[in-house]
Amino acid sequence: MKVDKDAAYWIKHLNMQKHPEGGHYSAAFSSDELWPQAQLPLRYKGSRVLYSSIYYLLEKTEVCCLHKLSTDELWHYYSGGTLRLHLFDDNDKYTLVDMGPDIDEEQYLQFKVNRGVDFGGEVVNGDHVLVGCSLSPAFSFEDHQWSSGPSLIKAFPEYQNLIKRLLRT
Q1: How many C-beta neighbours within 10 Å does residue 32 have?
Q2: Contacts of residue 121, Cβ cutoff 8 Å, sequence gap at least 6
Q3: DSSP state, 33?
Q4: pLDDT in tens, the chain (169 residues)
Q5: pTM for the full model?
Q6: What fold does the segment set 7-166 form as a domain?
């Protein structure tokens, strides 16, 4: 008999820790090879590991705070309720994406967040969501930037309340 796992199960069994963006995470895979800086686009200020991936868990009482990356990030849905990603791009376009198991309801099992897009997330159905995030080159906090609340609110005034709720405090 299949039993759904709760957030505490995943946190314990995947040895997860608190993530600075909100929620919990643990490393899944990382390459043992490096890309030298000379082979990378100019936006990278040093060598990078070839690829990395993490498990990421968000509970319904938490949010993934707004941020942007220098690298495209591929999200993979694994378990739980529905994760809603909120994306704000440089062309003043807001996009809402739901990740979950119900593809008939236009939920995604995988979704790519493009580099340079401000984004955050929240659980909109269920108690938690377990996803994975993969990047190539690998994630580095040097390639991470917290979103600017005033800039986003100026560009997207109709989403002011959402932006404020998803900002890092």
Answers
A1: 6
A2: 58, 63, 64, 83, 84, 85, 86, 166
A3: -
A4: 455 799 999 999 999 999 999 999 999 999 999 999 999 999 999 999 999 999 999 999 999 999 999 999 999 999 999 999 999 998 889 999 999 999 999 999 999 999 999 999 999 999 999 999 999 999 999 999 999 999 999 999 999 999 999 999 7
A5: 0.94
A6: Jelly Rolls (2.60.120)
